[in-house]
Amino acid sequence: MNRYERLACELRSRIEEGYYQAGERLPSVRDLVEAHRVSISTVQHAYQLLESGGLIEARPRSGHFVRPRRERPPPPSIGRAMQRPVEVSQWDQVREGTCLLPNSKTFYLGRGMPDIDAPTLRPLLRALSRHARRQSLVTLNYDSLQGQRSLREQIARLALGAESHLHPDDLVITTGCHEAISIAMRAVGEPGAIIAVDSPSFYGSLQAIRSYGMKVMEIPTDPSRGISLDALELALEQWPIRAIQVTPSCNNPLGYGMPLEHRRALYALAQRFDVMIIEDDVYGDLEYAFPRQPTIKSLDTDGRVLLCGSFSKALAPGLRIGWIAPGRHFERAMHMKYVGTGSTATHAQLALADFIEEGHYDPHLRRMRAQYLRNRDAMLDAVAAHFPASTYATRPQGGFLLWLECAPELDSIALNQRLTEQKVRIAPGPMFSAVGKHRNCLRINYATFDPQVEAAVARVGAEVARMLEEAGQAPLAQLAEDAGAAEAAR
């Protein structure tokens, strides 16, 4: 992280904590230069970063001031506990949401798609082109089942940033994180086994559990801290749970970052009941805070954590490059890899190893983390402006996904059907549950944010208001009045 980014983060924290109030004048450039012993350009760049994020504003001949902000939607509350393990359903919703061909006229607000237009990805394109021009038989031949060692070395080096001490031989390259999670599921369980998951949970993991004939125990999850340890302990006491599957960093779909003490307590609980932990870290490198939180794998002393990751969210999903560090289940994971897809395609592995080794990965992450943080704040403001006052919204600590909880009367599946006619699609809440819970919730993407995206968000908010009015909620006139009052307050 550059000096100006560190200074911007410090100022942002002070604003968000209330040290600087809305409308208050911030320290002058000269004052910050003297206080932090940095250059004038460092302070100017920090202020420009905060200004581009809509957090402050510059007034001619007066300095920089904290911008008045809309009252943002409050975060949702923790859900209710499930009474017993269940079989996973909801495949029809997942298929509809993931199998549609992209349409340039439709805004796909619900997809877990990063911004792939960033200029910091150009070195990766050059690396891909360079390996293609070499016309080497290496890229056309079968690769090692474990994957290219050069890439495994780079992944092991990157893992140190999350305090995970991995050896290249601990890793298996997979075709995306989805395959890594699928391998982990099969490595620790068999048909009929019970997997505990946070709720809501990533639908890809749920469908992997379904495909292997396993069952799910949904555990209530706090939108700011993660899976409820009390509810998990009770479930572990009552049921023969085989593994716990969690996404503790930049959770999908809630966006939380599990605190370190919570991670330690979760690992201790897994040790006590002798169950495995499948840790999905696909969004981990996109944590806004620097340095990022340690993985649960970094706490692992007996090989019970199967760490899964990929470059699909930090770079581009089309690479289809993921990995797994399966701990004590290494041999089982290798067999699952062999009977599943065999070796992973070589071309992208080689290009990606070059991209990281040449020093392009970290600058790209810095750019995307700053962009996604700005977009998160802009999206929260848009939700405050365009959605009914009864809406709740998470506060993601990384990544680019926002979870919204609307009034109980809303049916997000019906909402998505209506929005499709308006060339907008969201991810309905039932996709993120084994049995169709969270029907009044939805997930939206803020990887990019511009006037067109805000217009699409406005369409979603207006349709939510219309559906709630039809269900007997507050009339549209009142919702419009609330929105007008929020705009005036800004």
Automatic annotation (TrEMBL):
PROSITE patterns: HTH_GNTR (PS50949). Residues 1-69 form the HTH gntR-type domain. It comes from the Bacteria. Keywords: DNA-binding, Pyridoxal phosphate, Transcription, Transcription regulation. Residues 64-86 are annotated as: Disordered. Gene3D superfamilies: Aspartate Aminotransferase, domain 1 (3.90.1150.10), Type I PLP-dependent aspartate aminotransferase-like (Major domain) (3.40.640.10), Winged helix-like DNA-binding domain superfamily/Winged helix DNA-binding domain (1.10.10.10). GO terms for molecular function: DNA binding; DNA-binding transcription factor activity; pyridoxal phosphate binding. This is GntR family transcriptional regulator. In the C-terminal section; belongs to the class-I pyridoxal-phosphate-dependent aminotransferase family. InterPro entries: Aminotransferase_I/II_large (IPR004839), HTH_trans_reg/aminotransferase (IPR051446), PyrdxlP-dep_Trfase (IPR015424), PyrdxlP-dep_Trfase_major (IPR015421), PyrdxlP-dep_Trfase_small (IPR015422), Tscrpt_reg_HTH_GntR (IPR000524), WH-like_DNA-bd_sf (IPR036388), WH_DNA-bd_sf (IPR036390).
